[in-house]
Amino acid sequence: MLKVLIYSGLLIAGLVLSQFLPSFTGDLQPTVAKGISLATMVCLSFIMIHVGNEFDIDKKNLRQYGWDYVVAATAAAFPWIFCALYFVFVLLPAGSGSDIHAWKESLLASRFAAPTSAGVLFSMLAAAGLAATWVFRKARILAIFDDLDTVLLMIPLKMMMVGAKWQLGVIVAIMAVQLGFAWSLLHKLALPMTWKWVMAYSVIIVAISESIYVGSKAIDATVPIHIEVLLPAFVLGCIIRQPSHHGSGGHDGHHALPPSEERASTTISALFMVLVGLSMPAVLGTAAGKAPAEAPTKIAGYLAANTPEMSWGVIIMHTLILTVISNIGKMFPAFCYRKEASLRERLAVSIGMWPRGEVGAGVLVLSLSYGIGGPIVTIAMMSLALNLVLTGVFILWIKKLIAPVYALGGSRASA
Q1: Of 64, 148, 197, 258, which is the most buried if we count CB atoms within 10 A?
Q2: For the whole model, what pTM was predicted?
Q3: Is 406 helix (H, G, I), strand (E, B) or coil?
């Protein structure tokens, strides 16, 4: 558990530093923020390539994956809907429920609560020694589908803000092609999987993603084509042939890495934790209504103009409430998989979906870029940050929950 505590400390350190970074860097802030973003994406790609390489698809059991997607989509939808309802009916003035602009902006801003931070979750669960458990294997599938669903649903949300654009269709097409590759070429591509090679693949994935983003932004700044690196990195891991060491040292679908590879993976995961914390937008900047330096033409502003001013005490109260209701929304998996796992394991999987991170922060940055701001976005960001800070607590809770179900060696207890 020492590794979990270290990772938690690194997350918190990065988050604290992110609040002071703008004042430290001054005019260099946009450049520094971009560098942090790129480094975060490289580390996330590294983690997701390994996750994909561990992943095996049972093509004879497609119905199970269809059900997993339904569960993941529901676990993403409930917190999103709960937060949107809270924004419209609690934080906005009475009568806002009949205003289409209130719903458009609230639905986009509240989408931050939907995606689980897959990279943070996988790294933390592995650090806690839970990588060989049913909880890890199921959380891995649900978190990936959860993020995939978030990316897909962002398309109609963007359409509400900017209208139907051809770029959104391109994003869907690219995602479909990637999933097709993962399905048809599962573990068939003979490429090296040492950490240096995986890092090189990660850099290439980020470079391609950013090149597409910059090129499309030059065409239309309001709707750039942004390919989240999580999916292409995971797909690449899926299609690369599993290394020979996968045949030894593992159990229950988890494979041990050689010591040098394990050290490299741990180091990069630790760096990722710091970078995720640093990637969080400055809360005070948000409260002041500051949009990102790369913001497109503002097309919103209802929430910023109509949300009443709040003291920091009131903001903190709403942050706590929003965090609770968004995490309650993630509990749907606890009611599923009754034939596969005990109640303790199902609860553990649901709690494992609580950590938020870089994807949710990206949603909030997009909201700011469209002109959505004010106390509501401040509360959303603080809720996101609180869930991030509590990740280590969630993992410890998960381990305590499933301890009676698993033997010390990580295999399922017979009783």
Answers
A1: 148
A2: 0.82
A3: strand
From the list 382, 369, 329, 304, the residue with the least C-alpha distance to 80 is: 329
Task: Look at residue 410 in the predicted model and tell me its pLDDT.
Answer: 43
CATH architecture of 2-402: Up-down Bundle (1.20)
**Mean pLDDT on 372-377:** 87
Question: What residue segments make up the domains of the chain, in order of their start?
Answer: 2-402
Task: Give me Rg for the CA atoms of the chain.
Answer: 21
Tokens 């995602």: give the residue: 175
Residue 196: Cβ-neighbour burial (10 angstroms; 0-12, 13-18, 19+):
exposed
Length of the chain: 415
Structure tokens at 306: 């109509």
The answer for 261, left when phi > 0, alpha when psi is -120 to 50, beta otherwise, is: alpha
Neighbours of 192 (CB within 10 A): 12
148 or 332, higher pLDDT: 332
Q: What is the pLDDT of residues 46-89, one digit of tens each?
A: 998 998 888 887 777 778 889 999 999 999 999 999 999 999 99
pLDDT per position as a tens digit, 12-34: 999 889 888 888 888 888 899 89
Token couple for 372 = 């959505």
Phi, psi (degrees; rounded to nearest 5) at 406: -115, 145
Q: Which two tokens stand for residue 122?
A: 């996988």
The token pair at 262 is: 């394990």
For 329, which DSSP code? G
Which backbone phi and psi does 251 adopt, to 5 degrees?
-155, 155
Q: How far apart are CA 130 and CA 403, in angstroms?
A: 10
- Show the tokens assigned to 180: 């097709």
**Residue bearing tokens 């969080």:** 280
Q: Residue 240 forms beta bridges with which residues? A: 189
Closest CA to 34 of 204, 218, 279: 279
